[in-house]
Amino acid sequence: MNLCLACYEDRLASLLENATSFRLFRLEHGETTPAGGFDLARHDTQNLISALASCGVSTIVCGGVSGCTRRMLMQAGLDVRPWIRGTVDDVLAALAEGSLDRLAMPGCGGRRCGRGRMQSDIVAPGCSHPGQGRGRGYGMGPGSGAGNTPKKEEPK
């Protein structure tokens, strides 16, 4: 398996969108070997997808990621393992042991983190996700008080 770690210095970047380097590794029979890496001059999800595809990457491990970016990566056929923290060595050891979930960011329940209602609040450049950021609420808020709500009668 060819995998990529979205890094900031010697650890995973807190957010995929803020990664400064992408380190590539080959994982075979529980052992990882370095396979190069790249930096992106411009942070754009399509550029990242193209770079990962040209390197034969099948899995990307990262910190937090917006729902839109995650969907784009998954639609490109990548296995996305988000909400992971740690140094490169810690992450590689956990991958080799099959225990990556133990490095989930605090408050995250492993791979399911970020799949809730709030996942689409951030729009990634180039995202064409339908309905992204178009006010699809259902008007359940408390309102401003200027509506047709009848006034309460004062006790006599």
Report on the architecture of this protein:
This protein has helices spanning 45-54, 67-75, 88-97, and strands spanning 2-8, 11-12, 21-28, 31-38, 59-61, 79-81. It is α/β, with parallel strands linked by helices. The protein starts with a strand and ends in a 59-residue tail after the last helix. The model is unreliable at 115-137 (pLDDT under 50). This is Putative Fe-Mo cluster-binding NifX family protein. Residues 132-146 have a biased composition (Gly residues). Residues 122-156 are annotated as: Disordered.
Provide key terms for this protein.
156 residues; DiNase_FeMo-co_biosyn_sf; six-stranded mixed sheet; alpha/beta; Nucleotidyltransferase, domain 5; 19% helix; 20% strand
Brief sketch in words of this structure:
The chain has 156 residues and is α/β, with parallel strands linked by helices.
Superfamily (CATH H level) name of the domain at 2-103: Dinitrogenase iron-molybdenum cofactor biosynthesis domain
The amount of helix comes to 10-25%
Alpha-carbon Rg, integer: 21 Å
Structural class: alpha/beta
Biggest beta-sheet profile: 6 strands, mixed
The CATH topology of the domain at 2-103: Nucleotidyltransferase, domain 5
| Assembly category | single chain
Give the end-to-end Cα distance, rounded to a whole number of Å. 77 Å
Strand content: 15-25%
Low-confidence stretches: 115-137
CATH domain class name of the domain at 2-103: Alpha Beta
SS summary, helix count: 3
- Overall number of strands: 6
Shape: elongated
- The succession of helices and strands, N to C, reads EEEEHEHEH
CATH architecture of the domain at 2-103: 2-Layer Sandwich
